[in-house]
Amino acid sequence: EAGVAQSPRYKIIEKRQSVAFWCNPISGHATLYWYQQILGQGPKLLIQFQNNGVVDDSQLPKDRFSAERLKGVDSTLKIQPAKLEDSAVYLCASGRAGVSTDTQYFGPGTRLTVL
Amino acid sequence: TQLLEQSPQFLSIQEGENLTVYCNSSSVFSSLQWYRQEPGEGPVLLVTVVTGGEVKKLKRLTFQFGDARKDSSLHITAAQPGDTGLYLCAGAPNSGYALNFGKGTSLLVTP
Which residue(s) pair with A57 in the sheet? Predict the structure, then answer.
């Protein structure tokens, strides 16, 4: 089966600009996650969707970050405006059941550099 | 947020050596997962452990979940260059909670 697709793979922007990332999960997976991975750290959950509803967005900086999952399939994550500390790899993952013992399948990530 | 401490942070060994990396917390987890992440890629699940004291083997990799479900270890026997990567542990207090990831152990195995 095809894996999780993400685009773009790399993005360089200046601070205060806007940026959007796209994720296409594995077909049939109900759960979709967005993570932020800063260099030298593990992934930090930003938001979890179950179908097209939000399950957990407690760590999403809502003043600048937004995410949506269109029709319960693809998802976009937006940052507006970007700050220097947003430089990180943004990982998308999908899973079947949305519980902690579920296997999460990760995409390759989008590496964002904010100058 | 439950904190997962991983040690060592970095490990550089030669092919054929054995190694153990650790994942510790002061909190109890209902389950714990180990992932490996290679440069430029997303993490890939290696194993899920759910029972205190559980031991799982995956070829040369042995995973153990502590009796109290607060810690875990990953032992690699006869490491190979293909084992190089970032090893991440992740856990949740119960099945309805999101995973918390540790910072990882970066392993380099040289020929």
Answer: none
